[in-house]
Design goal:
Blueprint lengths: L2 H7 L1 H13 L8 H14 L4 E3 L3 E7 L5 E8 L26 H17 L6 E8 L7 H7 L8 E8 L9 E3 L3 E4 L2 E9 L3 E2 L9 H12 L1 H6 L6 E10 L5 E2 L2 E10 L5 H20 L3 E10 L2 E3 L1 H12 L6 E3 L1 H4 L11 H4 L4 E7 L23 H18 L2
Helix pairs in contact: 1-12, 2-4, 3-4, 4-12, 6-8, 9-12
């Protein structure tokens, strides 16, 4: 069975699907066109796709032979950013683009679905294909889990494309055991003062000054309150206040994220407690009131060591495809990015793979979430082969 060459034969179709999705990006749970395309393609292959949760789709392959069930997942949602990439299939939707490669993932899993349908009699169990919305807001995975996604599932696997790394395109990197990505929780801090004319600051209560002091003080949590072996990243990514140069506004607001590698999130809880105390304390000292809100939590991604070892072997057995242990690239450290498939990893044994789709060696100089990021869709067949190989081999070896 040479899944690599089988996948190469459907490569033009995968590129067409990917670029169609890329031109018409949709965000969050609002993915009707992408969902309709996925269901159409699955139905054409002979599947019976089923709606799950608010906007998800699942389909089952195999099931003819008793055995275990493995979940393969692709996310479908885009990002709320304006595309600046110089490609002829760029987004036609203002303010939205597939800047994280989820269009690639959806096309790859549809390719895997076609391969698995061709080998359905060889599936020693069942493959559950998941097409998930709302990954970027960490809500799609828990939504589908609550709708019954993991019923009967024994193991799960996902692939994420990367760009901008100095690693040849088409390389598959398998995350080893332990934590492969950080947890993430978003925060919003609103500082309320009293607005006034820029010429009479003594008659106002400046929320910008208070917010600036809060922002600087919060950086001390990492350097002064976490132990040397504790990992925590506090980032302010958005700071807004006022709309005129000569007016002191009533409010100043900050948004950002907290990331840790603590499976129990004790470090995250410590950071949140101290953030609230520091923000409220500084606000009070500067005559401002402060509201601190936390939302959209996503846990660490937990990788099953035995599963990861097996999958690395399966990937290295694929003809013409290079597969390596992610630890050779990361130094064994968890990635700073977060992934809502982590919710699945806290329920069933999980493996995570990365596929380089645009190397900095070839001029792909931007990474995910950048307005100018480009992904090399000539490697789509690699992802489809990897998905199918993972399912077929795991089910056979663990039947």
């Amino acid at each position: 069975m040479d899944l690599t060459n089988e996948a190469k034969k459907i490569q033009p179709e995968l590129v067409d699907i990917r670029r169609k999705i890329h031109r018409d990006p949709e965000t969050g749970f609002d993915v009707p066109k992408t969902k309709a395309l996925v269901k159409q393609k699955l139905a054409e292959m002979g599947y019976t796709p089923t709606d799950m949760g608010r906007a998800g789709v699942i389909a089952l392959a195999g099931g003819k032979t008793p055995g275990k069930t493995i979940l393969l997942r692709a996310d479908m949602d885009a990002l709320p950013i304006q595309e600046e990439a110089d490609v002829d299939y760029r987004s036609t939707v203002p303010g939205k683009m597939h800047g994280c490669g989820h269009d690639m993932h959806t096309a790859m899993l549809l390719g895997a679905a076609k391969l698995l349908k061709a080998h359905e009699d060889e599936i020693c169990g069942t493959v559950k294909l998941e097409f998930q919305p709302a990954e970027e807001i960490f809500q799609g995975s828990p939504d589908m889990i609550s709708a019954g996604l993991l019923e009967g599932v024994d193991a799960a696997a996902m692939i994420h494309v990367t760009a901008g790394m100095p690693i040849p395109s088409g390389t598959i990197m398998v995350a080893g055991g332990g934590i492969s990505s950080t947890s993430c929780e978003q925060y919003h801090i609103k500082v309320k003062g009293k607005g006034g004319h820029g010429s009479t600051p003594h008659q106002a209560i400046d929320p910008i000054t208070a917010a600036a002091h809060i922002h600087i003080a919060l950086q001390e949590i990492n350097s002064r309150e976490l132990e040397g072996n504790q990992f925590g990243i506090f980032t302010t990514g958005r700071f807004e206040a006022g709309n005129a140069s000569n007016v002191i506004p009533d409010t100043a607001e900050m948004w950002g994220t907290i990331r840790t590698t603590d499976p129990e999130n004790e470090v995250g809880e410590l950071i949140k407690t101290r953030m609230k105390q520091i923000a409220e304390g500084i606000g009070a000292a500067m005559r401002c009131s402060v509201d601190v809100e936390f939302f959209d939590f996503c846990p660490c991604m937990m990788i099953d060591p035995a599963l990861a070892s097996d999958v690395l072997g399966y990937m290295q057995a694929l003809p013409e495809i290079t597969a390596i242990d992610l630890a050779k690239v990361s130094g064994g450290k968890a990635g700073g990015g977060s992934e809502d498939f982590a919710f699945v990893s806290h329920h069933v044994p999980t493996v995570s793979m990365f596929l380089t789709a645009g190397s900095s060696l070839d001029g792909y100089n931007y990474s995910q979430h950048h307005p100018k990021v480009r992904f090399d869709d000539s490697v789509l067949y690699c992802g489809s082969a990897a998905y199918a190989q993972t399912a077929l081999c795991l089910l056979k070896d663990h039947s």
